[in-house]
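Morning F.,

Quick status update on the modeling queue. The single chain you submitted on Monday has been processed. Sequence for confirmation:
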Amino acid sequence: FHYDYKGKKDAGFFLTHPVEYGESLHEAELSMRLLAPLGIRGDIRLRLPLNPEERSKAERLIPSGTLPWIAMHPIAGKEPRKAWPLGRFIALGRRIIDNSLGKIVLVGGPDEGDLLIPVADATDAILLAGQLTLRETAAILERCALFIGNDGGPMHLAAAMGTPVIAFFGPTDPLIYGPYGEGHTVLQSQLGCSPCHLPHSGKFACDTPSCMDDITLDRAWEAIDRDLLA
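Structure tokens below.
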């Protein structure tokens, strides 16, 4: 099974079950298309089941209190052009803390912990990036009232755990790569060149993240649903 990419000569020549490629479909829906020749169809429900030990560890790390937990992931993996400016994450975190909306926990991969120390210091956040397994990170996200971050793995993991997401998008298309499901907010650049990323290619039209700079701190602040944190 594979996609039959139209426009590419002989792209589906060796395929027993070519599947039409939908350029504007979300990645989750695109993946489901590959299962259709097997007769597997249905609604997509993203969820990562957790065991009691993982949930217990998450409860110890971010215990319940008077204020809700807000997870942040200010990194964009190995593609910095997808990252909202780190200084704005710090400023947004400070507004959250100063207005007593919640407490912040920083999540991320094994190589991201040191990069997030300035954010943790400035926002009094608990820094867990690089210290947890994928499943333990999912347990942390499940306990959070909100996730704020860039286009990346933790964003999708938060959505899969049923946590409302605020995601920043510039060069990549949120219709394809955005948080899947309902109840999420995408803050996208208003520049005419956004999105410029060619799906599944790793190619971007520019080297400078002007589109990410275009998303203001005030837009992010206004996107926070106060009712979720009440």
